[in-house]
Amino acid sequence: MQKEKIDATEYELKEKVVHIRRVAKVTKGGKRFHFTALAVVGNSEGIIGSGLGKSNEVPDAIRKAIEKAKKNLIRVPIKGNTIPHEVLGEHVSSRVMLRPASPGTGVIAGGAVRAVVELSGISDILSKVVGSTNPLNVVKAAINGLALLRMPQEVADIRGKDLKELDLPKSYLN
User: Fold this and answer.
1) pLDDT at residue 159 in the model
2) What is the Cα–Cα distance from 94 to 131, expressed in whole angstroms?
3) What is the DSSP letter of 112?
4) HEC string of the chain?
5) Taking CA atoms, which of 61, 110, 146, 154 is between 20 and 30 Å from 160?
6) Rg, C-alpha atoms of the chain
7) If DSSP codes are grouped into helix, strand and coil, which group holds residue 22?
């Protein structure tokens, strides 16, 4: 399936810095400090992206991270205020389980996953991080999981069947 290219200029994107890390290079003259920033951007209507920026100064690292995030946007299928089905996103040794939740549940997620889910526009979801809790890997795993989501009509079209032939629960057919 062809990945859709999304233009960041078309959307009013919100930005959130998830994590800033100071890294040091040890030289004979002492330690040289640099910064990495992890940022997530989204429009709260199903568009989400993440980026990692590196620089000698924190504001430059944040700016670079946001620019990279705007170049890596994906579209997330949303059913009401939640996701259409359960999914497991993986990246390196981090796994993020995302489960649809009933209306009024809210966002049950930790820091890195919460940023991704809220900026994508999902307001009712259950999540669990299994394995590594490194924020960079968790954000990438969450976005990979959201990228795996498919609406029932999409699956029916791929299989060349009618939606009623898929043997889905009644809650999916609404």
Assistant:
1) 87
2) 5
3) H
4) CCCCCCCHHHCCCEEEEEEEEEEEEEECCEEEEEEEEEEEEECCCCEEEEEEEEECCHHHHHHHHHHHHHHCEEECCCECCECCCCEEEEECCEEEEEEECCCCCCEECCHHHHHHHHHHCCCCEEEEEEECCCHHHHHHHHHHHHHCCCCHHHHHHHHCCCHHHHCCCHHHHC
5) 146
6) 18
7) strand
What does pTM read for this prediction?
0.90
Query: Under a CB-based contact definition with an 8 Å cutoff, are residues 119 and 44 in contact?
Result: yes
Over 50: is that where the pLDDT of 141 sits? yes
- b/e sequence 24-38, b meaning 16+ C-beta within 10 Å: eeeeeeeeeeebbbb
Strand-pairing partners, residue 26, are 31
Q: What is the mean pLDDT of the chain?
A: 91
State whether the Cα torsion 73-79-85-86 is positive or negative.
positive
pLDDT, tens only, 25-37: 999 999 999 999 9
